[in-house]
């Protein structure tokens, strides 16, 4: 042992004791426990916005003016007056008033008018009279077609009815279900395809000299001829009017060729077709005359969507 330097040993011992004391009193670093972050809520995707349904387009309308009739309004817009009546719940063409608003298109869910019965309408005797009150189309409130069958009285007819051999009458509200209406005359079927085409194969309705050309006022042309001469359909189509209910036209036939075109034949002496009948191009539909006119002539109109068109623009060169 080195005793020669006791002071040095004492100093070293004191340093060691001080170091031990410092280590014993040092405080440990504080430990802070942090709670784990809360889990994120699941992200909810918003449903795609549903596009709003477009509002239905309002139906076109016409306000009845003084002097107008159901037939004249239908002609003005290129419509079948029966369909126009059905869309507006009209059963009598005379029952309209000034200011009445008519819809010019089929409301949603409207059924097409029923086919007419096999009765041929007889024109009124006086040219100035309005159209006779004939039944039009069926409606939800009133059923006017089909009609019952009438037989002239005779012993034979009575015996047939008693024996049940007569043709079954048309169904009426009191008829038992399953009854079959009496068959009417055969009506040619509408040609398949092409009925909605703009192109129409036109021919002249009569042979004769053009007395008066087309103007905005006349709406058509006047063609000379002799009384009783044949008037033919200028194109295939369906007869939508046959009668004497439009003042200034006399005995009139209107043919609807498709959804775009129709033609009108006025001042006839006799009408040979009935409403809703299908006719072929060149088929005889009337005989020339001077009804509601100052001479024998045919007033011929062509209309596109109800608007008058000069027939010279569509007819072949004469």
What does this 3D model show about the protein?
This protein has 318 residues and is of the alpha+beta class. The protein is built from four helices and twelve strands, in the order αβααβαββββββββββ. A hairpin with a 2-residue loop joins strand 11 and strand 12. The chain is rod-shaped, with a radius of gyration of 45 Å. The model is unreliable at 115-135, 143-149 and 164-197 (pLDDT under 50).
List the SSEs and their pairings:
Layout: H1 6-25, E1 61-63, H2 70-76, H3 81-87, E2 101-103, H4 155-163, E3 210-212, E4 221-224, E5 230-232, E6 237-243, E7 251-256, E8 261-271, E9 278-279, E10 284-288, E11 297-304, E12 307-309
Antiparallel strand pairs: 1-2, 3-4, 4-11, 5-10, 6-7, 6-9, 7-8, 8-10, 8-11, 11-12
Summarize the structure.
With 318 residues, this protein is an alpha+beta fold. It contains 4 helices and 12 strands.
Major β-sheet annotation: 10 strands, antiparallel
The percentage of residues in β strands lies in: 15-25%
Distance between the ends: 155 Å
Number of helices: 4
Low-confidence stretches: 115-135, 143-149, 164-197
Radius of gyration, CA atoms, in whole angstroms: 45 Å
Helix content: 10-25%
Instruction: Provide the succession of SSEs.
Output: HEHHEHEEEEEEEEEE
The total count of strands amounts to 12
Structural class: alpha+beta
Shape category: rod-shaped
Mean pLDDT: 74
Please tag this protein with its features.
318 residues; alpha+beta; 10-stranded antiparallel β-sheet; two-stranded antiparallel sheet; 14% helix; rod-shaped
């Amino acid at each position: 042992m080195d005793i020669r330097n006791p002071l040095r040993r004492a100093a070293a011992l004191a340093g060691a004791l001080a170091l031990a004391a410092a280590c014993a009193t040092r405080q440990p670093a504080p430990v802070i426990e942090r709670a784990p972050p809360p889990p994120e809520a699941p992200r909810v995707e918003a449903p795609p916005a549903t596009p709003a349904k477009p509002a239905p387009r309002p139906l076109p309308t016409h306000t009845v003016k003084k002097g107008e009739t159901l037939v004249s309004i239908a002609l003005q817009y290129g419509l079948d007056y029966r369909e126009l009546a059905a869309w507006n719940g009209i059963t009598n063409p005379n029952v309209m008033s000034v200011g009445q608003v008519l819809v010019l298109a089929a409301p949603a869910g409207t059924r097409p008018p029923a086919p007419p019965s096999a009765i041929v309408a007889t024109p009124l005797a006086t040219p100035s009279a309005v159209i006779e009150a004939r039944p039009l189309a069926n409606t939800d409130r009133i059923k006017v077609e089909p009609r019952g069958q009438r037989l002239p009285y005779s012993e034979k007819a009575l015996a047939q009815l008693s024996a049940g051999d007569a043709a079954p009458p048309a169904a009426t509200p009191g008829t038992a279900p399953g009854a079959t209406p009496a068959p009417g005359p055969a009506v040619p079927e509408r040609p398949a395809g092409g009925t909605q085409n703009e192109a129409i194969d036109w021919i002249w309705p009569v042979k004769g000299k053009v007395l008066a050309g087309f103007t905005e006022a006349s709406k058509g042309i006047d063609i000379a001829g002799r009384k009783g001469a044949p008037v033919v359909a200028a194109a295939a189509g369906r007869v939508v009017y046959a009668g004497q209910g439009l003042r200034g036209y006399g005995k009139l036939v209107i043919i609807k060729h498709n959804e775009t075109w129709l033609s009108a034949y006025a001042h006839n002496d006799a009408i040979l077709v009935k409403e809703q009948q299908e006719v072929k191009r060149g088929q005889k539909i009337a005989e020339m005359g001077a009804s509601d006119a100052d001479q024998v002539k045919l007033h011929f109109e062509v209309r596109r969507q109800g608007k008058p068109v000069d027939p010279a623009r569509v007819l072949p060169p004469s």
